[in-house]
């Protein structure tokens, strides 16, 4: 069974109504994202950071998977499928995909500020000042902030090199280390990129099939094509 690796970015979630991280000019309620999404911001004003992520969490809970999210689980009928996502929402999970690696963390989880291995499912709750882990430290969002390492990139690299087919959806491929996953998958027989604004990294690359459409427009037909190819 061939292995398909799917790399998704903000473009697929944007079509479910979620703002891209730097949407609206990179501001949130008048604050630059660097004031709410860095270790320094957490040290300066924890309450503001918690408010920002509580808002993002509420927005993610209201969003629904779109046609692109819903098409991807169908590939599991004929392929081994792994999704590597730069998104922190749970739309892939709710759409039914079963193997998902979140590069930049997960909104619906919290973790200890003392021990990063202590991670907790939030369920329907948000994180409030005074919410603590079992070690007595304030819980923080389970998110990779600007200026922090991306520990999951090593797992993602191992997945990418196994790809027989790579599908890239809704990402500019400008942000590292996530962008390094495409070169890591260069042994794939087929590489498809679905984005209305084709990333510079793949422009003019004869080894890449460019589908210049939104995720909702481009992913379902591509999934149908790939399923027919195995029949």
Care to describe what's here?
The chain has helices spanning 10-14, 23-26, 39-44, 46-62, 67-71, 91-95, 153-160, 181-184, 215-229, and strands at 3-8, 27-28, 31-32, 80-85, 100-102, 105-112, 119-121, 139-143, 165-169, 190-194, 208-211. By secondary structure, the chain is of the alpha/beta class. It has a 6-stranded parallel sheet, with helices on both faces. Strands 7-6-8 form a 3-stranded antiparallel sheet. Strands 2-3 form a two-stranded antiparallel sheet. The chain is elongated and about 55 Å long. The relative contact order is 0.18. The model has no long low-confidence stretch (mean pLDDT 93).
Give me a quick take on this structure.
With 231 residues, the protein is an alpha/beta fold.
Labels describing this entry:
231 residues, alpha/beta, six-stranded parallel beta sheet, 9 helices, 11 strands, 30% helix, elongated
Secondary-structure blueprint:
Layout: E1 3-8, H1 10-14, H2 23-26, E2 27-28, E3 31-32, H3 39-44, H4 46-62, H5 67-71, E4 80-85, H6 91-95, E5 100-102, E6 105-112, E7 119-121, E8 139-143, H7 153-160, E9 165-169, H8 181-184, E10 190-194, E11 208-211, H9 215-229
Parallel strand pairs: 1-4, 1-9, 4-5, 9-10, 10-11
Antiparallel strand pairs: 2-3, 6-7, 6-8
């Amino acid at each position: 069974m061939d292995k398909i690796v799917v790399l998704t970015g903000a473009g697929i979630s944007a079509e479910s109504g979620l703002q891209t991280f730097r949407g609206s000019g990179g501001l949130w309620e008048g604050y630059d994202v660097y004031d709410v999404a860095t270790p320094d911001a957490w040290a300066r004003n924890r309450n503001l950071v918690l408010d920002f992520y509580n808002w993002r969490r509420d927005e993610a809970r209201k969003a629904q998977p779109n046609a692109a999210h819903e098409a991807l689980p169908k590939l599991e009928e004929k392929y081994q499928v792994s999704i590597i996502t730069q998104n922190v929402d749970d739309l892939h999970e709710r759409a039914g995909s079963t193997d998902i690696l979140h590069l930049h963390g997960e909104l619906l989880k919290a973790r200890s500020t003392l021990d990063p291995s202590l991670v907790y499912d939030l369920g329907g709750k948000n994180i409030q000042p005074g919410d603590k882990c079992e070690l007595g430290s304030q819980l923080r969002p389970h998110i990779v902030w600007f200026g922090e390492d991306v520990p999951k990139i090593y797992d993602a690299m191992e997945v990418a090199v196994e790809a027989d087919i790579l599908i890239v959806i809704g990402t500019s491929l400008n942000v590292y280390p996530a962008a390094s996953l495409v070169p890591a998958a260069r042994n794939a027989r087929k590489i498809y990129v679905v984005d209305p604004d084709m990333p510079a990294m793949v422009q003019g690359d004869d080894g890449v099939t460019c589908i210049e459409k939104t995720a909702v427009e481009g992913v379902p037909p591509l999934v149908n094509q790939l399923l027919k190819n195995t029949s």
